[in-house]
Specification:
Strand order of the largest sheet: 3-2-4-5-7-6
Distance between the termini: 63 Å
Bound molecules: oxalyl-coenzyme A, adenosine-5'-diphosphate, magnesium ion
Strand content: 15-25%
Largest sheet: 6 strands, parallel
CATH superfamily of the largest domain: Thiamin diphosphate (ThDP)-binding fold, Pyr/PP domains
Number of domains: 3
CATH architecture of the largest domain: 3-Layer(aba) Sandwich
Shape: globular
Structural class: alpha/beta
Radius of gyration: 25 Å
CATH topology of the largest domain: Rossmann fold
Number of strands: 19
Helix content: 25-40%
């Protein structure tokens, strides 16, 4: 049988699959594992903890997986999630696919049923061909059949997750392997740490010159940062690039704070104008996908546009529109090469002034809405209150999900430091809230505030028990408008509208029931007070903010994607 190993002579010190896996993960610098335990991986959790490491135990694997992926994004090390077989694996797979889509390094490790039964489809406990099901949803899917291969498998998983474009890796471990023994000495020899698992990739000098020439000739250049730039952790180089060139910049949502939203060159509040009027756009770790209207159409205006694109993935270039100057390499190397080539260059001051003026005008226009009370709280004044409190805590991580709760918070809440915003990402996925909050608290050791729509929260709501159990400094704010998009949709006869939830749900009491603090607020003042107290307490808290059911708009800012024919809804 393929997974049997050599017979070990009597008296030789032994190790087993469980221990080798842990040795390999520890050697590779993993300290936190996120997961949900059961047959056949239960001992992974116990043994990991007994070794003095942290195991964050969740209520659903999907949330554990999101946590692992966010840990990967925040730390530039693969986040590890452990699940049981078939259903547990499938729950975790959603998060692995999401990690891969978002370019977050993550390793999903699942126990699996015995190969000989799975392969003949003879009906094992939680039988599933996990190895092949995972394959299209991640960068690589590996199965380990022999204990002496655990070392090489972990090394390959780490290198694959981190190198080039980061992403997810699946490691399949058949149940029997965990308890298969081998000589401890041979086992030790089978483990190693990869040298330089995320190698720098330098751009060709000719490509750098091509990009620099384009930028030098631009009248209205723009730098657009994506979460790849935040992930790259070369924050000081990026700030220097912006300040030396005097080019205005705007962040994609998770790149907010890579350079402070209050920086004088930040054009986030002039977004439409800069996308439309710019002539040369330097994309730094941002894809021209749906979030950027695929680089074309009215979002980008009539002015002819040339793109410089910095990305580690060569096949990303020209994905949607022609890229005039591709710069393929890692962001740190590319940005520094460009800086050297652009020495002495300054973008036209009148362009930066025009952008600053427009941004200042937009901010001034928004300001009164953020501070004006209304009979029932709305997104603007509640988020205005949150923004003002968070100004005093620039190093909290903001987690954000929902539709209106997402779009409005992205617009209203300034970010000041890199990698302090985690949101629904490339897929616009709901349910990342609690997993992300746990990971951010665990990995940064600092407070976290999660602003969630009431619908979005529901996807991972039970994890407030996880937040409370680990006593994490997490404040969850639920923007409760009683429904998806809005809470005032009329219901058909004898039915409840499919877009509504029970408006009397007491989310605050849910938190109380799991041992945290629950607060219900109806005014911006109450919200400010509760949020400030919660952050200061460092204790698990849920603030239920009652929002006007009529406050939201259909699909938030992406209503254009929600296509309905002229025929309309049949009554
Ligand atoms: C930005 N703006 C500001 C400020 N910041 N005004 C004043 N003050 C400040 N500080 C302005 C900015 O200039 C824009 O106005 C506007 O606010 C919106 O900005 P922004 O950055 O949010 O831009 P926009 O157009 O919404 O960006 C497009 C987008 C974004 C696709 C990148 O919408 C996005 O990230 N969406 C993710 C949506 C998502 O994933 N939803 C989950 C799906 S919910 P103008 O005037 O300059 O344009 C779901 O599942 O189904 O519905 C479902
Ligand atoms: P956003 O959603 O913020 O626009 P995307 O996820 O679309 O960001 O894009 C991130 C891009 O960054 C991906 O194309 C990815 O290949 C790239 N990337 C990630 N890490 C690096 C890195 N270290 N160097 C270069 N490019 C990177
Ligand atoms: Mg809602």
């Amino acid at each position: 049988m393929s997974n049997e190993t050599a017979v070990v002579p009597e008296g030789v010190e032994l190790t087993d699959g469980f221990n080798l896996l842990m040795d390999a993960l520890e050697m590779n610098g993993i300290t936190n594992i996120y997961g949900l335990l059961g047959i056949p991986v239960t001992e992974v959790g116990r043994m990991w903890q007994a070794r003095g490491n942290k195991f964050y135990s969740f209520r659903n694997e999907q949330n554990a997986g999101y946590a692992a992926s966010v840990a990967g994004y925040l730390t530039k090390k693969p986040g590890v999630c452990v699940t049981v077989s078939a259903p547990g694996f499938l729950n975790g797979l959603t998060a692995l696919a999401n990690a891969t889509t978002n370019c977050f390094p993550m390793i999903l490790i699942s126990g699996s049923s015995e190969r000989e039964i799975v392969d003949l489809q003879q009906g094992d406990y939680e039988e599933m061909d996990q190895l092949n099901i995972a394959r299209p949803h991640c960068k690589a899917s590996f199965r380990i059949n022999r204990p002496e291969d655990i070392g090489v498998a972990v090394v390959r998983a780490v290198r694959t997750a981190l190198s080039g474009r980061p992403g997810g890796v699946y490691l399949d471990i058949p149940a029997r392997l965990f308890s298969t023994v081998m000589s401890a000495e041979e086992g030790k020899k089978s483990l190693w740490v990869p040298v330089d698992p995320a190698p720098a990739q330098l751009p060709a000098p000719s490509a750098v010159k091509r990009a620099a020439d384009l930028i030098k000739n631009a009248k209205k250049p723009l730098i657009l940062f994506g979460k790849g730039a935040a992930y790259a952790q070369c924050d000081a180089d990026i700030l220097s690039f912006v300040e030396e060139t005097g080019i205005p910049f705007t962040p994609m949502s998770m790149a907010k704070g890579l350079i402070s939203d209050t920086h004088p060159q930040c054009g986030a509040a002039a977004r439409s104008m800069i996308l439309q009027e710019s002539d040369v756009v330097v994309l730094v770790g941002a894809r021209l996908n749906w979030l950027l209207a695929h680089g074309k159409g009215k979002t980008w205006g009539a002015a002819p546009k040339k793109f410089v694109q910095i990305d580690i993935q060569a096949s990303e270039i020209d994905s949607n529109v022609p890229i005039a100057a591709p710069l393929v390499g890692d962001i740190e190397s590319c940005v520094n090469a460009l800086r050297a080539e652009l020495k002495g260059f300054k973008a036209p001051a009148e362009w930066l002034n025009a952008v600053s003026e427009k941004a200042a005008a937009s901010r001034a226009k928004l300001a009164p809405k953020l501070s004006t009370a209304t009979p029932v709280m709305n997104y603007h004044n509640s988020l205005g209150a949150i923004r003002d409190v968070l100004k005093n805590y620039p190093d909290i991580t903001l987690v954000n999900e929902g539709a209106n709760a997402l779009d409005n918070a992205r617009m209203v809440i300034d970010q000041y430091l890199p990698r302090k915003r985690v949101d629904t990402g490339t897929w616009g996925v709901m349910g990342i809230g609690m997993g992300s909050a746990v990971a951010a608290a665990a990995e940064t050791g600092k407070p976290v505030v999660a602003v969630c729509g009431d619908s979005a929260f529901g996807f991972s709501g039970m994890e407030i028990e996880t937040v409370a159990r680990y006593d994490l400094p997490v404040t969850v704010i639920i923007m409760n408008n009683g429904g998806i998009y809005r809470g005032d949709e009329p219901s058909p006869d004898h039915q409840i509208s499919c877009m509504l939830f029970n408006p009397n749900t007491r989310y605050d009491l849910l938190m109380e029931s799991v041992g945290g603090t629950g607060v219900r607020v109806t005014t911006p003042e109450e919200l400010s007070k509760a949020l400030d107290a919660s952050i200061k307490s460092g204790k698990p808290t849920l603030i239920e903010a009652i929002i006007d059911p009529a406050a939201g708009v259909e699909s938030g800012r992406i209503g254009n994607l929600n296509i309905v024919s002229k025929v309309g809804t049949k009554k």
